[in-house]
Amino acid sequence: MSSVKKQIRHVDVLIVGGGPVGLVTAFQLAKFGHARSIAIIEKHPKSAQDQYGRAITLYPRSSELLDGLGLADELAQDCFACRKTVSYDPNGVEVQGRGWSFMENMKDTQWDFALVLRQKYQEDIFRRRLKELGVSLEAPVELTDVKVDESVSQGGYKITATTKDGVTGVEETIICRYLIGADGGRSFVRRALNIPFDGSTSEDKWVRIDGAIETDMPKSRVYGAIESPTHGNVLWAALDHGATRIGFAFTAERQKAYAVFNEEAAVAEAIASVKPFSLKFKQVDWWTIYSVGQRIARNFLTKDCVFLAGDACHTHSSGAAQGMNTGLHDACNLGWKLSLVLDGLAPHSLLETYESERLPNVQKLINYDKDISRLMTMQLPISWKGDPNADPNEILGVVMAEASTFTSGLSIAFDINNINVKGSFGSNATSAPVSPGQRGPDVQLTKPGTNEATRLHRETPNNAKFHIVVFAGEPEHTSESLSVLTETLGTSNVFSKASLPISWLTIAAKSGPSAFELLGVMPFGKVFYDEKQTAHLRYGVNVKEGAVVVLRPDGWVGTATKLGVSSVEELECYFHKILQII
Questions:
Q1: Per-residue pLDDT tens for 164-214?
Q2: Burial 103-114 (b: 16+ CB within 10 A, else e)
Q3: What is the DSSP string of 267-285?
Q4: Residue 216 and residue 373: Cα distance in Å, rounded?
Q5: pTM of the model
Q6: Burial letters for 428-442: b for 16+ Cβ neighbours within 10 Å, e otherwise?
Q7: To 10 degrees, what angle do helices 20-29 and 119-132 make?
Q8: Dmax (CA) of the chain
């Protein structure tokens, strides 16, 4: 089209892909102050994409991460909050401890349920909240070329991306410092940068179908499994807005019955899959058939400036309902790091921890998913060394139970590195010690004066700042240490800098009419009371000694020190490795 004029613009960050991962990444950057210097594009017109279907389930840690960004409450308003599960054997008899039963024991969190909300509704919320910050999803706009000029210095505008508007045909050149490929399993970004996508796709096919149904299944508004002799371990998931999802294995033998597999066939197979229960679709919202496989990109960061996130760097079955969860973990790991680098508050090396923290956890998921997906199709894992005649349904229950805290996201942890540093404090929590690289548990607190209940996560939101939490213990025992901390902070050349992305808060193991009088010193940031001492107990802090815990912006523990003379020195050393402190 000769009349189409090529346009040029500069942005700091170009995000490719308008699904949940791209939208949440863009939302973070906009929320952290970069709304005017980012762009997000999506090649599909969103009105033309699947109105329903795709991902449905958020596990507790994903909900916590979104809660830290102020997004989870709206999702909860629309969701089906699933706390109950059921499994039925081939005869329709309920069996205990199988399938999704682990969901009933997702504890140690306010978000102790599976938040079931179809991707369509999640994206609607994310797009609207992003637009409120001044950033609109540009769609349909396709990335057609990307080049990286490695002669440009690190952090410079070294990426040249070419895009094409799907409606007007207008081509645009976007010159940017960083590019994030969140453009799905067939990622153009990944292929354009020649990043290997290691793994395989099996011959197994699965079907998923959503809609409004009628059934005689006794417990139907749950997350359930039906152990079908013909369709594997059948997924039955109660969805938002009264809908239901049925998912099942579609074997090569059953495929022979259909010259063409269409909606009518999907409905017929769904009805067969849930026998001995009856099933009638009053309305079909969406259905799909797909091949099962596991793949992982060899790099999540390439050429110092191009990131992959979500399905662009890892794909797996929907067997454990992990796809969107894993992608959101990617987004929330990357967002705050990139923001601090863009603001000049952290060195570029901070971005390298994105791959080193996320890739091992994704690999762990893929290894687990290989077993899950085989078991759901009534095959024992390739690595199985037990009874060759074992019931895959029983083994599936065991595997899913063993992986439950990883699946829920609550035990996802990172290795020791520059931002996860072992300090002088060691948690004495007997059940689950809290240490650097692990999630900082949410705990109940009360506010001074009103005694209003609150939670630690609510008071330490993800605003791209580190939160230094002073566990003050019982002040009659820790007053000397609190005084020393006050004195050393007062002479610190580091913590006197107002520009540092750091906030403080104090948790006392007692309450009183005056926080100042209770502590004997000015509180460090906001103060909260832990009168029942459950917060100190969960973090493994002796109330007679206290401790200082650093929470990263994303809520994982960065380091922890003893409360006392060495606290400030340790904290200064920690932040010198992470932040640009002049």
A1: 999 999 999 999 999 999 999 999 999 999 999 999 887 778 999 999 999
A2: bbebebbebbbb
A3: HHHHHHHTTTS-EEEEEEE
A4: 28
A5: 0.96
A6: ebeebebbbbbbbbb
A7: 20
A8: 80
